[in-house]
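[User]
If only I could read backbone structure tokens as easily as an amino acid sequence. I have put the entry right below:
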Amino acid sequence: MYLEECIEKVNKKLDVLDGKRCIAIWGASENTVRIFQYTSIFKYNIKLIIDNGKHGSIFWGKTVVASDEVKWDVIDAVVISAFYKEDEIFDELTTKYRFHGTIVRLKWEGQKRPFYQHLMKSELQVPSEYKNVIEDNAKFYNLHKGKRCFVLCTGSSVRYLDLKKLKGEYSIAVSNFYMHQDYNIVKPSIYCMPQLTYTDKFTKELGKKHLEKVEQEAGDTQFFFSISERDLIEENLLYRGKRVNYLYFTPMGQEYEEVDLTLKTMGVYSVPIMCLELAIYMGFEEIYLVGTDHDQLTNGRYDYFYERKDNLVGHADKDIDADGNIIGSYKRFLPWIFGIWEQYKIMKRIAAKKGICIYNATRGGQLDLFERVDFDTLF
């Protein structure tokens, strides 16, 4: 749900205030500020602001009063504007003060956070120079509705699975998955590449060679890249004759309630989350994660199903040594792991609203947010 839709919901709840002569708002916090900012509240007769913790202060030109100071018999309606204390305030109104006027509760069923924390759809429009490229993703909407797919990641647990069973299945491969011995049997339907981040080790020239290698090895599939890679790909005449698509990622840290690949999409901490965005948008009903180990903090290593030395960019991470050991402080990894988990939660919530089930078919690993299934029992 976008902010515009949330505002519409709130305004509909406020409709009952029409004709009321004396209206109180209970709550003098950011939620009320945002109600004043975004909704139609000012067209009603707001006479006082109630807040027991801030009584005596000035809030939007009115002196805040405590609830015990209110003459409740002259109040026609109360708008409860305290997201996390709505039930508590409602109980106080109906039991302590025996208020019989109109009570407007702004929360709606299933609401997880204040309405103003939702993104505006208008803010998710892509810049005009990329508009046609990104809007072309509309062709993927519900393309595989009702089907199942497998997200194939590169964790070391993949070594212990017979991926030949995936022949004929829809699958989404990531990063260096082309290195798997059974890649040409599996023939992934989609190939996702994470947004490239350049450092003194992972240079732009190395990024170019990396993309060239994937182009050579990945075969005939749908490629998805960040729009930030478009110039590098086109300037170097890469992926000519290939099916290439782009996503426009926002900075990480924003929380989404929808997946719409024709708009800006949630910037991801890990490429499996990019795959989930695709799979949800395409309408897959069952999504199985494979090789999402995410066990760096428990074993102190960053391992793949392949040998790091055999990969073109295996030496390019400044926080990982040549043998895959995490070096130095965990300072960078802790917020990164937290961010990954939070984004998986977002994907799980969006999927659930659409009746889509996400399962973890990884053998082992630390990802504990999805129901576990045994890979071998799926065939």
User: Anything to note?
Assistant: The mean pLDDT is 91. The two ends are 36 Å apart (CA to CA). The first helix runs from residue 3 to 14. The first strand starts at residue 23 and ends at 26.
